[in-house]
């Protein structure tokens, strides 16, 4: 079988593979967003290959080498698209085209590249064979048939712009969904784990050399002020293994920036975090350096508009004089789990349990009415997970403070009472974990205020239900609530409020005392 005939076979393979590649990638183009440039390149090479492969094979090494290089880059792009745009490796959810179709598109793109490489190799052999034959003829004429030393083969090295291409991918691909867990906080650091569904592609491995990354608010991007820094060890992930970070340490930085970030999370529907790192990444045998600056956005708490109150009741005072309990549901929209629980200690070497207690964190809030601290509420924090989280709150109100400032409190409540509602505000006071005050976290939580507004009748009904109907006259309580709301609703803006607020204040104090709140 001569080289020319093999060259025709290579051309035929290129023709068939290019036609299939063109059809599959044209389909991908209709459902993709960010990677149109890569798909456009693949489609363009497939179209040009259809024309170029019709040229009969002849000894023109540069012609075939050009198309071999162009098609090889196209194959690399196809592999990248298969990784970042399909559901094959967990980077993106299913987009309507299954993994097998993506893999087929990649396979035929590689076949185009292999066809051109084979054609280049055959042309090289043809040229080399002709040169060897010519050298042999010269040797026979000049040296009487003495062997001639073979010329050294020229090695071609292809230099890819790997760092620039890696930065392009990072800047353009969508950030995949991840699950972040924060645990064991201190005033200096916090442990974290990052879990994702991203798997290393088949027959490859990914290596991250040790690196340092810093996190900051995007507002300080021109001159970053890190609120946290991490130092990661060298990590290697074999084929098909999920890329995760487990039990790494996050070193806390500028407390004011962290407090500002907490405000962003609390008050906005979307908040952003910027990251900067110089990473050396190895994919298979290719290693490249990447200068990473990425901004990631998550859903925020949007001023805690989704807080639900399931229960409010009165209980006998505990050791902290708490006589009010409540069960609230807070929706966490971010994919972040915060754990303030330390697992029980393991068995000692003598197989005796050294400690079966589980230390947990507590957040203490200051309750505000008319911007005055009128009580405290304590929330035991175990796990704050994505989605709905139910918390039990124990609280107490400072009776003397409320009595002394009742007129000012009523004045602040009148706009809500007119609509049959009441409101209160809470702000962070202290954070304790494992018996230690976390001043870093306290300053952050003191920067936010959470307001809750609910119908007066709903709140009173919950308190009445908690007593089981014992010790409270529902008729008396109902009449008192009606008088308070009627008086507040009848208050005109042009009327003298002093008399009304004084009368309302007496009625409200009587209601709170009757319910057992004060």
UniProtKB/TrEMBL annotation:
Keywords: Membrane, Transmembrane, Transmembrane helix. The chain crosses the membrane at residues 6-26, 38-59, 65-84, 96-118. The keyword Membrane applies. InterPro entries: DUF3712, Tag1. PANTHER family: CHROMOSOME 16, WHOLE GENOME SHOTGUN SEQUENCE, PTHR35895:SF2. The keyword Transferase does not apply. This is MARVEL domain-containing protein.
